[in-house]
Amino acid sequence: MWPLSCVAVCGGTHGNEMSGIYLAKHWLRDPMELQRSSFAVTPFLGNPRAIEKCVRYVGQDLNRTFTTEFLSSTEAEDEPYEVVLAREINQTYGPKGSAQAFDFMFDLHNTTASMGTCLIVDSEESLLPMHIPCPIYLYKLPGEETYSINSVAKAGLALELGPQPQQVVRADLFSQMRDIIACALDFIELFNKGTVFPAFEIEAYKITGRMDYPCYPDGEISAMVHPKLQDKDFLPLNPRDPIFQTFSGEEILYEGNTTIYPAFINEAAYYEKKVAFVKMEKHMFSIPGLQRD
Amino acid sequence: MWPLSCVAVCGGTHGNEMSGIYLAKHWLRDPMELQRSSFAVTPFLGNPRAIEKCVRYVGQDLNRTFTTEFLSSTEAEDEPYEVVLAREINQTYGPKGSAQAFDFMFDLHNTTASMGTCLIVDSEESLLPMHIPCPIYLYKLPGEETYSINSVAKAGLALELGPQPQQVVRADLFSQMRDIIACALDFIELFNKGTVFPAFEIEAYKITGRMDYPCYPDGEISAMVHPKLQDKDFLPLNPRDPIFQTFSGEEILYEGNTTIYPAFINEAAYYEKKVAFVKMEKHMFSIPGLQRD
């Protein structure tokens, strides 16, 4: 792997996730703390119009728009704002899959779920992110195309911190996110300067599917995340454990046959898709050593 | 005071505060648990269009729209949706200040602040709410006209539960809100049936003003609620205690001369007004006894 020369840090891919938005705005005013000797770091705001309105997105979710279909689409009058934006971002930091693309992109997110701090990586084959010491969530389903903003760079990851309400910035999470970026930039500096990172084994969580809310016949959700599941992200959920409580007070149990590890439990942004949590398995991965060519 | 015969319970005055919205929707499907023998209870959704979009409001804050100015305005083509709605709600549950108005209205709210459970009452002269056993926050500034949705009824209160992110329903807060409404309806039933509630002394918090976020010259906020103040609603804040942390890392201290009791600390909905918290004083009030005529 070659040394990295161009790194981007994006805040506000979702316009109501405030840690990354205020961090990126701060770095745009004063980029000093991003400076390293062996590479350049460019902070930017992902979705300026959504940030202005303090909403997740204006027309469609920007972070699902970096597919070949959208990136290669031709301009149309009625296309969503985020499709135009994705093509622009792809021109600036990509093009996706090309030699001119940025070497790495960090994308900063918050969740209302109690997920602590975790890295969201497309798959275990993304070698460099797998070496950063942090809990890891592998988001790509088998055969799925990458669709996230950081997929326009040659490598990248999303940083997910929670719980934090949408539209709110908490000083504690802001500091954590700032510290992790500082640590990750230091890691790239060491890599660029020839540090050898040996092979190792690591447990990581891999998505297997999504759990929908139960609904009334008219499509309205009819239950909430069970109080015993609330705030239990990344902890084991066993067959027959309670997962929902209906508004009338009944319990609904998990009907699967194996233990899973839920994440994004009760995430605000997933209500519109009626998703209550993401189902994950815990796997052991053998990560090869890492050294610059 | 006469017995109460008509009571309303409103959820969704703010369309992204989910405990009250899901409770009211549940009661509209199944009103059984609201039934009492001595009075009728009507659940309703405050701002249906904002609920549909899962936003606080569409045109302007409905819960600031129940003033004489708005309620007596004549229809205009370009008026905000909430002004039309306020006149309709005033017709159904008021008119405000009239003999036909509902006897009591409960209005259900959530906050992203760690305020636990509290009752928001216009002033200590609202006798009936002052007798309900719960921490009390008196919101009306001296000389100010009432402007909240429950002011269209002869008496009322807002129930404020937090912390809960906007657009999220947590089972624990949902149950608490349901229990408090059950308890308050039982209280009215006892009052109607002639129970004597003796006079007592109570400490309550009274608003004195608001604390704005510090800003850059361009108007953007330049600091966050200090980690030592975050989640400390209703606890004493003393002169020279830290209240803000700037994005560059400096501390800003409280410059007042007396101890205050902040509330709505880091409430998501107050960023647009650049309000970081509400300043309150703690006072002892002598509440006269209560008995039906």
Automatic annotation (TrEMBL), chains A, B:
GO terms for cellular component: apical plasma membrane; cytosol. This is N-acyl-aromatic-L-amino acid amidohydrolase. It catalyses: an N-acetyl-L-cysteine-S-conjugate + H2O = an S-substituted L-cysteine + acetate; an N-acyl-aromatic L-alpha-amino acid + H2O = an aromatic L-alpha-amino acid + a carboxylate. The gene is ACY3. InterPro entries: AspA/AstE_fam, Aspartoacylase, AstE_AspA_cat, Aste_AspA_hybrid_dom. It is a peripheral membrane protein. It comes from Gopherus evgoodei. It is found in: Apical cell membrane; Cytoplasm. Binds 1 zinc ion per subunit. Residues 201-282 form the AstE/AspA barrel-sandwich hybrid domain.
